[in-house]
# Entry
Amino acid sequence: MEIREYIKQNLPRIIDEWASLIRIPSISAEADHHDDMIRCANRWCELLKAAGADRAEAMPSDGNPIVYGEKLIDPKLPTILVYSHYDVMPVAPLELWKSDPFEPSVRDGRLYARGADDDKGQAMIQVKAFEYINRMNELRCNVKFIFEGEEEIGSPSLESFCKKHKDLLKCDTILVSDTSMIGKDTPSLTTGLRGLAYWEIEVTGPNRDLHSGHFGGAVMNPINALCKILSQVVDDHGRITIPGFYDKVLPVPEAEREMIRQIPFNLGNYKKAIDVDDVAGEEGYSTLERNSCRPSFDICGIWGGHTGEGSKTVLPSKAYAKVSCRLVANQDHHEISEAFAKYIPTLAPKGVRVKVTPMHGGQGYVCPIDWAPYRAAEQGFTEGFGKKPLAARRGGSIPIISTFEQVLGVKTVLMGFGLESNAIHSPNENMDLEVFENGIVSVVGFYHHI
# Structure
C-alpha cells in the first residue's frame, strides 16, 4: 500500500492517538504536573509498541522519565536514533486560547492544542512513518527512540542519561523533528544552529548611592562606566572585539551561501514587520547570514540606579547588565565565556570594579550537506513536498544536539516540519494537517533512501 493511501485509511486512528497524548498536560516547568509526565511517558511506550517497536519503556533519569524504544533487525545494518520530547510549555494566558489547549480542536485544516507541533505532533510524524515502514516490511535499518520530558526546561537530565546509557544509545545517525521549515510551500532542512554564551556583569563604584549634585563629575558613575564598556564590545564594522573570538569561526561554504540566497526574503517587509528603518550587523554578510551563520553579541538587560516613578538625582553604587553571544559551529562556549570574563574588566575606566559571572551556554552545530543521511532526508522531503528543500541555518540554539555529538560521537539530521504560523509556545499552537501528512511521507522517504 502506498504511503498516502495508508495515511488516508488510518488518519482517524492517527489523530485519536495524537489526541491521547495531547490530553495529558505534560508541563515540565510546573511541579503540579509530575504525575502527568509519567502518564505521558507511559502512553508513548504504548504507542511505540503498537507501531512495531520490540521494546519500549520509561526509564528513570535524574528528573522526568525518558522513553526508550527500539526495533533491532540486524546488528550489521545502520542504526537510526530518533529524538523527541514529550513535555510542553505552560499555556498562559489561557484567555487567549480559542479552544481548550488540552482538548484538540480541528478547524481550518489545522489541529489546535498545546503540543500540537512542539513536539507531540512532530514526534507523531516520526512514529507513524516508522509504523508504516515496519508494517510494509520495508525497514532496512535498526531504529531506536529517545523521548525526553525536560526539553522545555533545558534538558537538565539528558546529558547524564546519555553518558550512563551510551552503549544502549549507540547509533549511526540521529534524526530529530523539533525544528521548522521556511514555509509550507518552501520546505527546508535545518543545517545549522548557533551556540550560546550568557553572562551577568556587575559594575561597582562608590560604597553607597551618592547625591549626583555633590558627587557628579567627580566620581565615576557605574552606569556610565557600564555603557562605556559595552559600547566597545562590537566595533564600527559589526565585529566582536573579544580577543581570539573569531579564531575558530569557520567560513560558510559558498554552496551553502548560494542556498541562503535562494531563500524567499524581502528586506523591506522584514523591516516593516518589526518597525525599524534599517538593519545592522557584521559587514560583508546579508541579513539571513547574520542571523543564522555568523556570531552576534547582544545586551539582553541593563539596570541600575533609580528606575521608579518620578526623579531621583542619584549617582548609583552599582550597575548591572545581562549579555549574550550567539556562537557558530566550532566555537567552544566555555572558551568564549572565559575569554569574555577576562576581557570585559580591561575595558573598564578607573574608579569602578567589574565582576563577570558566566550563567549558561551551549555549543553550535552544523550538519554537512554532503553527508549521506542529509541527502536521504533531502530526497525524502522532495517526495513529501514535491520540491527539493533548501538548506537553512537557524539563529537559535538547541544545546542537546551538540551534546549528542560530543557524548555519542554522532551527527544529527534536523528534519523538522514546524511553521511560524504554528505558534509554538504561544496561545493557539497548531499543526497544519497537510504538512503533517507530507511530513510522514518525507520521513518514509528518508528510510527508503538511507
About this structure: The first strand starts at residue 55 and ends at 59.
